[in-house]
Amino acid sequence: MIRITCLGAAGSVTGSNFLVESPGGKKILVDCGLFQGGKQMESRNREDWGFDPGEIETLFLTHAHIDHSGRIPKLVRDGFKGQIITSPPTAELCHVMLLDAAHIQEMDAEWQNRKNKRQGKGELDPLYTTEDAEASLKLFSPMERSRVVEVEPGVKARLRNAGHILGSSILELWIEEKSEPFKIVFSGDLGKQNQLIVRDPHEVFDADYLFIESTYGNRKHRSFEDSKDELVEAIRYSVSKDEKIIIPAFAVERTQEILYILGEFHRKGLIPDIPIYLDSPLAIKATEIFRKNKKYYDDEAQAIVEEGYDPFDMPNLKFTESTRESIAINEKAGSAIIIAGSGMCTAGRIKHHLKHNLWREGASIVIVGFQAKGTTGRKIVEGAKRVRIFRENVAVRAKVFTIGGFSAHADQDDLLEWISNFESKPRVFVVHGELTASEALAKKIQERFNLETHVPRWKQRLVLKPREAAYEEPPGEEAAPDMQTMVLNNIVDLENELKMLKKRVKSREMGDRIDEDEIDRLKYLQEELQAILSNG
Ligand SMILES: [Zn+2]
Fold first, then answer.
1. Separation of 95 CA from ligand 1 center, angstroms?
2. Whole-number mean pLDDT of the chain?
3. Which of 217, 221, 353, 434 has its CA 20 to 30 A from that of 519?
4. Is 33 helix (H, G, I), strand (E, B) or coil?
């Protein structure tokens, strides 16, 4: 009997983490990602693992994105000493990404601690440090895809191309139960058909159990050609107004895809020769890794190389590594394209570019990636009139282009198409999606293929037998707080903050120092509260 506990990316998109317990009692992890998007979700990163990291012998990592890899340094700090099996490009990308993630964790803790100090609260340790990230890099054991490895007697595994980002993999696991082998497949994040740079996802024909992602389980992407036209339109619009085009992008894959497309525009003369800045040290490093790993390109990307071009370069492209160069971008008037991270506008240099350009009529904000609930990017997409950046309310007057067709994720049609390859009738667990997306995909799978589906909840444990499954309830005391508790907790926090503010104003400690900005912020808060209340 196999037990699989869904410890992340169940009912949510981020935090991917599945614990597989084999009949022999061995414990295997699939992915170890960071929860992202809002305080509530991110607080999960500090929770207990729900297992002893010291007991895990193997971690399979499907790909380098932080929502799949970003808790590995914490796992190592908490006692994991096993091997991390992943594809060679994933290992290379993790090398730069985990060090960068550790730096962000250290900075976040430092910022929080300055705040805590002012409020008389205790110190907070970073989730993990650069040292933890360095220690975790030593445990990576890269393995070419398509090779079968024996993880332990009775447990075999193979990675297959998932077509999502460079090095991304599907995981096939064969587990013997009383000498009867059965197969579990984790799709990882699946790419769409004809995605740029990487080859199409490997077609898998058989499984007893399938864990499939559902990031876009309820959506269909706009066509890729339409999306390219929209990008040209955004660029031409802001060039005609002499303003900037801001593209928030994930450092890995999305950034390289945008460079690839801009390169094509350049070769075809579709856009004017304005400066293009790649303003992200992480994305610059990732782009170098993409340049090196040509053997993983698809035919189209290889053809560009054979014609003598670098798919990720053009004459007007500048890599801005230092902070000084980054600041200088906004000191220069005139049109330019700026690609910067983070992809959901929650951290990094993109915040500075948004602060400088979001309020400018004629500027463009081009959203090319998934925006999780609670992030600044999501607010912009949903049409917020103002967003908060660096404790300031910045008006949104720039034109927002949400371009869906550049997604590195399969949409509903792609996912169903990929499932149609299965000749066996797997039982399907729909994960890695917001609940509505996962449920919508589960329903489609049932209708179209007559397969049994289940959408596991966070911390739910699944008991799998050859061709049989039972679902245990997640433990009551550990279950995620419901909406009502979350709202009540937030109200208590707010009340405390207000009490403190009142006290400080009364004691005149702050009386003279309240400026218009602060009064503005209070008014804004009041408006937001009224908006929430009027929404019922
Ligand atoms: Zn991903």
1. 16
2. 89
3. 353
4. coil
452 vs 457: CA distance, rounded Å: 16
Which residue from 190, 191, 187, 162 is spatially nearest to 173, judged by alpha carbons? 187
Beta-carbon contacts of residue 270 (< 8 Å; ≥ 6 apart): 232
Q: Which two tokens stand for residue 484?
A: 């009502």
The CA distance from 458 to 7, in Å, is: 6
Say if strands 83-86 and 140-142 run parallel, antiparallel, or are unpaired: parallel
Distance of CA 368 from the midpoint of ligand 1 (Å) = 14
Distance separating the N- and C-terminal Cα atoms of the chain = 47
What is the pLDDT confidence band of residue 514, given thresholds at 50, 70 and 90? low
With 80 as the cut, is the pLDDT of residue 486 above it? Answer: no
| Cα–Cα distance list, 157 to 27, 56, 125, 176, 422 (Å) | 14, 16, 36, 12, 18
Ligand 1 centroid – CA 528 distance (Å): 33
Paired with 180 in beta bridges are 177
Q: What is the pLDDT of residues 153-171, one digit of tens each?
A: 888 999 999 999 999 999 9
